[in-house]
Write a structure and sequence with these properties.
Helices cover 31% and strands 32% of the residues. It has five helices and seven strands, in the order E-H-H-H-E-E-E-H-E-H-E-E. The two termini are 22 Å apart.
Length: 179
């Protein structure tokens, strides 16, 4: 099983939409995506990157097929500390539970470290999203705290409670290169 990440391209929009299901909509995108809307979103990300914005989004590739997305955004500050970089991810239902999201998160942590945009990767997961918290734990993140996000209301109208996990990013954490 070969897992990699690559910057999202407009031509990846169909695969990104195809990887979405009700869980992706509930926990990540908050609405059903279209190919046109996803292509426009990717184009905006590319434009923003060209103009100095720090958020980056990647396709998650499994054996040559795009099966989801992972991104990092140092501009997310709600519930985070200076130097934290928010990480978000989603994978197609047929590849869940196989370590794909865990590996993608590890790879995006390498990207954060290489880009120098932060000192700690942080995953904020709804307390009811047990799959996401398992990914954080398996990727070496440590539970930090729970936070209420007033800008994100639950089905009952109350603020969402997010579980915050962090992983310090240091060059020493990277494995040495072997010829």
């Amino acid at each position: 099983m070969q897992i990699s990440i690559a910057p999202l391209r407009i031509e990846d929009a169909r695969a990104v939409v195809d990887a979405e299901d009700e869980h992706t909509i509930r926990w990540l995108s908050e609405g059903e995506s279209t190919v046109e809307g996803t292509a426009a979103f990717i184009a905006q990300l590319v434009h923003d990157a060209e103009n100095g914005k720090a958020k980056r989004a990647f396709g998650i590739w499994l054996d040559g097929r795009c099966v989801g997305t992972v991104d990092y955004d140092p501009d997310v500050t709600d519930g985070l500390e200076p130097g934290d970089v928010n990480v978000a991810y989603g994978v197609a239902p047929e590849v869940r539970g196989r370590g794909v999201a865990v590996r993608a998160v590890e790879l995006v942590c390498d990207q954060i470290l290489e880009s120098g945009v932060g000192r700690r990767a942080v995953i904020r997961a709804d307390v009811r999203n047990h799959a996401s918290t398992r990914v954080a734990e398996k990727a070496g993140f440590t539970y930090l705290r729970d936070i209420r996000i007033a800008s994100m209301a639950g089905e009952d109208g109350e603020p969402e409670i997010l579980r915050v996990y962090g992983r310090e990013l240091t060059p020493a954490e990277r494995p040495p290169d072997h010829p």
